[in-house]
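note to self — DONT lose this again. spent like an hour looking for the file last time. sequence + predicted structure for the chain T wanted, 328 res
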Amino acid sequence: MQSYWMQMTDHDTVIELREVPVPEPAARQLLVRMRAAGLNRGEFIVGHGLHGAAGTWKAIGGEGAGDVVAVGAEVLAFKPGDRVMGRCAGAFSQYALMEADEAMAVPAALSWEEAAGMTLTFLVSYDMLVLQGRLRAGEWLLINGVSSGVGVAALQLGKALGARAIGTSGAQAKLDSLQPLGLDIGLCTRAPDFAAAVMQATAQHGADLIVNAVGGSVFAENLRALAFEGRLATVGYVDGVLHADIDLETLHAKRLTVFGVSNKLRSKAQRAAAVPRFVSDVLPHLAAGRIRTLIDHVFEFDQIEQAKSRMESAGHVGKIILRMPVAS
């Protein structure tokens, strides 16, 4: 089968298409004929540590959707022919293995492309907003980099939970395009200069929960923009800034909570633990069309370099999808 592999150096990435054997599912795994897969910015950013030491080759792709071809001996919930989606190592391949505990049935209304781009962004958003962020109806949600895949998912999930949403982006056109999804206030800026506008928009209350998908360059400004007992989630650092000052006086006086959102060090059991709640709480919204995967562009399998370039240009709004070739 065809599979994309990538080597990350200290400064760049190299992608290679390989012919490799079709994998065999272990006891609790599914073998999935991949139909589409979603690109995620962190996978291509030097310094995120998702590929181990520099110089290491690894099959790439972290999420996707397809139909089950075979199941492991202990799998009871799925059978060959089922349409599934989920986190999936090596998803940029004609076939890939998916952990049965992390696999989800694709709602009938979703296309392969929509299903492929849903898993990581919405699971991460569920972690940030619900499991750790404790977002409640009527609260203010601020999303840095709201036009990213995670940003768009967090916006939609936040609105489904009854929150009021503020988003930042360096492009006014991107903010305008997100108004139909419920963006209440758009702040056109890439700089750490938005706290005053957030305080003004919230009648000096501040943001109850902030999603930082930008990085260290806006960390201190986010602390200034938080409400009393506010929560700050860090989900990425596309700005490459890995260190930031912490105003301990503000942290102390406002009783703030600061937390990270990453699966890099989590076990399989930890990653799978939230899936049943996610299926119960979020999939009904997707099935009914109340929230959806916002797709920026779909690229064919042999256009992976163009897809990567589109992501790195930061010109996209929502998810970039790679469509798999027909597998023999």
